[in-house]
Amino acid sequence: MRIVSRLFLSMLLLTGLAACKEEAPQPPSASDIQRAESLRPISTELHARYERSCLACHTSIDAKAPLTGDIAQWKPRLDKGMDVLVKHAMEGFNAMPPKGLCADCSEADMRALIVFMSQGKEERK
Ligand code: HEC
User: Fold this and answer.
1) Which amino acid residue places its CA nearest to atom 42 of ligand 1?
2) Ligand 1 binding residues, C-beta < 6 A
3) What is the span of the domain harbouring residue 100?
4) Which atom of ligand 1 is least distant from the CA of 102?
5) How far apart are CA 70 and CA 28, in angstroms?
6) Quick check: is 110 in a domain?
7) I want to staple 63 with a disulfide (CB 3.0 to 4.6 A). Which of 36, 57, 67, 112 is the partner?
8) Lowest-confidence range among 8-12, 41-45, 62-66?
9) Domain assignment present for 80
10) What spatial distance separates the first Cα and last Cα of the chain, rounded to whole Å?
């Protein structure tokens, strides 16, 4: 009986690990980080808001936030849908603080910042 449950447990563990391996995105390289650090939104207002808040965490691997401009890291986030991401950005999500610590960011700013951060470029309107 014990052996059976042990076997079962180790099988669970193995399948769990295999699933993890498939899901885990590539760790960011030095050039991903350099790129994240160098990107800025085009519009002056968004640029200022981004530099004041999002940049600190979203260009650092230590913060465990998806890096700005790292399309592979943003892909699973974008798959949740833009509305969910905007909601999470406004209300906070795990270690991501509400409004990303940008007190004067509107919901529209948040949306524009997410588009910029997930694509590494700002769409001109
Ligand atoms: C104090 C650090 C910090 C700041 C500042 C910050 N973020 Fe984040 N952000 C995080 C972390 C950490 C995560 C990953 C959370 C997780 O998936 O557990 C995250 C995740 C996100 C996500 C993905 C949420 C999801 O549902 O997957 C979005 C969108 C986001 N941040 C937008 C922003 C925007 C826009 C700003 C600036 C206005 C900002 N963040 C500022 C730390 C930060």
Assistant:
1) 96
2) 53-54, 56-58, 63-66, 77, 80, 85, 88-89, 93-97, 100-102, 105, 110, 113-114
3) 29-119
4) 38
5) 8
6) yes
7) 57
8) 8-12
9) yes
10) 66
pLDDT in tens, 73-111: 999 999 999 999 999 999 999 999 999 999 999 999 999
Q: Flag whether 2 is in a domain.
A: no
How many A from CA of 27 to the centre of ligand 1?
Answer: 17
Q: What's the rounded Cα separation, in Å, for the pair 63 and 36?
A: 13
Atom of ligand 1 nearest to the CA of 99: 38
Q: How many domains does the chain have?
A: 1
Closest atom of ligand 1 to 94 CA is 18
State the CB neighbour count (10 A cutoff) for residue 6.
10
d(CA 76, CA 106): 24
Q: Per-residue confidence at 118, pLDDT binned at 50, 70, 90?
A: very high
CATH number for the domain including 83? 1.10.760.10
